[in-house]
Amino acid sequence: MKQFFFVLALLIADQISKFLVIKNFYLGESLNILPILDIFLILNTGIAFSLFDDGGSTGRWVLVILVLCVCLYLVYILLSESLDKFESIALLMILSGGIGNLIDRSFRGYVIDFIHFYYDSYSFYIFNLADTFITIGVIIYLLNIVIPKFTQDGNKVS
How confident is the model over 142-157, as a mean pLDDT? Predict the structure, then answer.
């Protein structure tokens, strides 16, 4: 039950942030927050970092179906597998982000992106909280695989 509330909290944060940006900014409008951070509204019809942006509805529904399948698979894993705490958190974050962007793509036809980091002439891709949750979830998942787990006395736990 805690897992459901965790996903719901992240999903609500994502959707509220997108709602606030779409209601307060025009497409392409920017607000400088920090010397390296702007709120900059774009509508992304592709996937992460605007990859596979074909501008058409075929790509949209292919992405909806793919993301829905991934989300259903994650739910299956979360419900059927015995996962450690970090694996669960990682998969829940990935699931939350996937659902957040799935809602946008399904009902709007695009994902609302607005977080823009840059430095000097370098500009990172514009993204949203759902993308952030997915990225952090993947990092946690990979770290959980790569970093050995130790008990308090220093012996490796299998």
Answer: 64
Catalytic residue among 14, 84, 131, 153: 131
Active site residue 153: no
Q: Domain residue spans in the chain?
A: 2-146
The model's confidence at residue 39, banded by pLDDT at 50, 70 and 90, is: very high
| pTM of the entire predicted model | 0.85
- Catalytic position from the list 84, 113, 120, 153: 113
Check if the beta carbon of residue 132 is closer than 8 Å to that of residue 97: yes
Q: Which amino acid is at 3?
A: Q
Burial 88-107 (b: 16+ CB within 10 A, else e): bbbbbbbbbbbbbbbbbbee
Gyration radius from the chain CA atoms: 18
Tell me whether residue 120 is one of the annotated catalytic residues. no
pLDDT digits (tens, 9 = 90+) for 104-145: 999 998 999 999 999 999 998 899 999 999 999 999 999 988
**pLDDT value of residue 52:** 55
Residues 94 and 136 sit within 8 Å (Cβ to Cβ): no
